[in-house]
Amino acid sequence: MTADHLLDRLAALDTNTVSDALDFLGLPGATVGLRPLWNCPKIVGRASTVLLGPKSDTAPTVHLITPVIEQVKTHDRVLVIAGGIEGISCWGDIIANAASRKHIRGTVIDGFSRDIDGSEAIGYPVYGRGVTMISARNRVVQLDAGVTLSVAGVSVSEDDYVIADGCGTVFVPQAVIEKVLDLGERIARRQDGMVQAVRSGRSVVDVMHDAQFEAITQ
User: Fold this and answer.
1) pLDDT in tens, 155-204
2) What is the pTM of this model?
3) Residues 98, 123 within the same domain
4) Which of 36, 200, 216 is nearest to 113 (CA)?
């Protein structure tokens, strides 16, 4: 199955359903605190990982994340950024414009963004912990890219799958994406049926009994 088809299937779900599928499978992936930083649309794509860290000298350096943006060749990328400093920006409107020009689908930061109005003005989705005005310049540098990161306590590798919406952000390892999608689609169908059952007048006690949820995996 092609990556594009897998992304289409993932896009048809939401983070709640994907989180439930990971729960049933005993897998990590759901995060807490990585929310939309403006009223932006859902993003679904493959991770391009970026590791940041504190700057240790005063020598001029290439601005963080710009080399990764320059190297993007496909239209399925989501930038996933970790390793910044609390309260210091890891993102801004100039690199948002550069990312948009490269058809990058959005950015998820285990950290903060500045100039968020600039990202909103061009419709570029940014998810993270919060907004700041404090620049990364001379404070934070890029240490590496294409490596495995710890993002809000979840291990995320290059090319893993990313889904982010109003409830937050979930990462799915590429090795298990088909298993997660298969179960997620079953969960979505079962939950849709449960909603219809409640609307038709069936007892919510019966509809939401644990046995009904467990039956999803049968």
Assistant:
1) 999 999 999 999 999 999 999 999 999 999 999 888 756 666 677 776 66
2) 0.90
3) yes
4) 36
Statement to judge: residues 127 and 186 lie in one domain: no
Q: Does the pLDDT at position 210 exceed 90?
A: no
Considering the domain architecture, whether residues 199 and 144 belong to the same structural domain is answered as no
pLDDT digits (tens, 9 = 90+) for 102-120: 999 999 999 999 999 999 9
Instruction: Give residue 194's domain range.
Output: 180-217
Residues 149 and 190 in one domain: no
81 and 152 inside one domain? yes
Domain count, the chain: 2
Which residues lie across from 36 on neighbouring strands?
127
